[in-house]
């Protein structure tokens, strides 16, 4: 058996968690959340965490679980609108927030994985996003300098993995996960299925196994829908 494969989510995180660490957590809303690994972080009681993620889950689910136990000190995020606990803790001063435009957050993570310490973007120029950051001109346009994001640990969710750690994601659950896998000292992946070696067409691999340190089969695959909107089916 591959040395990367662990028997359960708790074992996959063993020896990795400590107070004050920075964690990247994949997902967009509730799509592609590491549903099985987050409860293990909660159980560890590791605190004073900085968490880099699109948002902080929703009521009772995802990173919300770590907000409830006050284990998160700072969020680096791009969307906070649906999480009332997130809003409450930020407005009360309990939680520090570094808010990013969505594309900027994605590029900061990608830059961290690519070894690019900083880059320039027009997004946020002339707004609070640019406050305190260097601004330079290129082709007579202002650009704000943004810095990379890196982490001690990335927890991500994929659809399938082989024993070498090569990953495939499914549809929108791909989101921030592949970039986060490249930008942390250690990457732990929960997957729905571990396949036999040689199953993947090399051209269809989304994340090469060189970026993956530990793999575990998911114990939670609820895939909750954050907000469902429906309409009556039209009759002919």
UniProtKB/TrEMBL annotation:
EC class of the enzyme, as a word: transferase
Membrane-crossing residue ranges in chain numbering: none
The UniProt record lists the keyword Transferase: yes
Keyword Transferase: yes
Gene Ontology molecular function, alphabetical: succinyl-CoA:3-oxo-acid CoA-transferase activity
Keywords recorded for this protein, A-Z: Plasmid, Transferase
EC number annotated for this UniProt entry: 2.8.3.5
Pfam families: CoA_trans
Protein name: 3-oxoacid CoA-transferase, A subunit
């Amino acid at each position: 058996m591959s040395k990367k494969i662990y028997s359960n989510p708790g074992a996959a995180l063993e020896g990795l968690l400590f107070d004050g660490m920075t964690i990247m957590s994949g997902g967009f809303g509730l799509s592609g959340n590491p549903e099985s690994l987050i409860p293990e972080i909660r159980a560890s009681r590791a605190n004073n965490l900085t968490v880099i993620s699109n948002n902080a889950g929703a009521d009772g689910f995802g990173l919300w679980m770590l907000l409830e136990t006050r284990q998160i000190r700072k969020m680096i995020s791009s969307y906070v609108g649906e999480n009332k606990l997130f809003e409450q803790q930020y407005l009360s001063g309990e939680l520090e927030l570094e808010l990013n435009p969505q594309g900027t957050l994605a590029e900061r993570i990608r830059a961290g994985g690519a070894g690019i310490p900083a880059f320039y973007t027009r997004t946020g120029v002339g707004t609070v996003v640019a406050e305190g950051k260097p601004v330079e001109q290129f082709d007579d346009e202002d650009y704000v300098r943004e810095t990379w994001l890196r982490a001690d640990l990335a927890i991500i969710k994929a659809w399938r993995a082989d024993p070498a750690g090569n990953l495939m994601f499914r549809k929108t659950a791909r989101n921030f996960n592949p970039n986060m896998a490249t930008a942390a000292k250690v990457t732990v992946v929960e997957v729905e299925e571990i396949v036999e070696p040689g199953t993947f067409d090399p051209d269809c691999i989304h994340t090469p196994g060189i970026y993956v340190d530990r793999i575990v089969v998911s114990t939670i695959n609820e895939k909750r829908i954050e907000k469902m909107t429906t309409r009556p089916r039209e009759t002919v």
